[in-house]
Design brief:
Elements lengths: L9 H17 L6 H11 L5 H10 L10 E6 L2 E13 L4 E13 L9 E10 L15 E3 L2
Antiparallel strand pairs: 1-2, 1-5, 2-3, 3-4
Length: about 140
């Protein structure tokens, strides 16, 4: 299964280079890993592998757009949903997001009481977690990246 290069990261580019090298070897053409990396860099539109590494390393870890499908945990409850709004903050170090969950999430852990939320706002880091935490130290929102 080929590595996805639709929104490449350094890891997916390296995985693609390994796949390319294996594919070429199956066809009887043996190339070095370095040559495969150069081919992937050109495939991605970069002049060479050094430029690709510099650009891909500086790319934000979290890349959200309106309409993206996301999943993760909100107040320890799993969810799947859609990004309704996203605003970059702190020069790309944080994002203000509005999410709409496919199914409402019960945010109360007490058995005799429930409170459901289907739309939430949060400020998340580039790792996809909120800085605000529950009393036991878990982030309020964690996005699966």
């Amino acid at each position: 299964m080929p590595a996805s290069l639709s929104s490449p990261t350094l890891q997916t580019a390296k995985a693609r280079a390994r796949e390319l090298r294996q594919d070429l070897a199956r066809q009887g053409e043996f190339v070095s890993y370095g040559h495969a990396l150069e081919c992937v860099a050109r495939e991605l539109g970069y002049r060479n592998w050094n430029v690709a590494v510099a650009r891909l390393s500086n790319r934000p870890k979290l890349c959200l757009s309106v309409g993206d499908r996301v999943s993760g945990r909100y107040l320890k409850q799993p969810f799947k949903g859609t990004v309704l709004a996203v605003q970059q903050m702190a020069e790309g170090e944080a994002y203000r997001v509005t999410l709409h969950f496919d199914e409402a999430v019960d945010v109360v852990t007490f058995d005799s009481f429930s409170s459901f939320r289907q739309r939430v706002n949060a400020t998340v880091s580039t790792q996809g977690e909120t800085w605000s935490k529950t009393s036991d130290g878990e982030p309020h929102l964690v996005l699966d990246l």
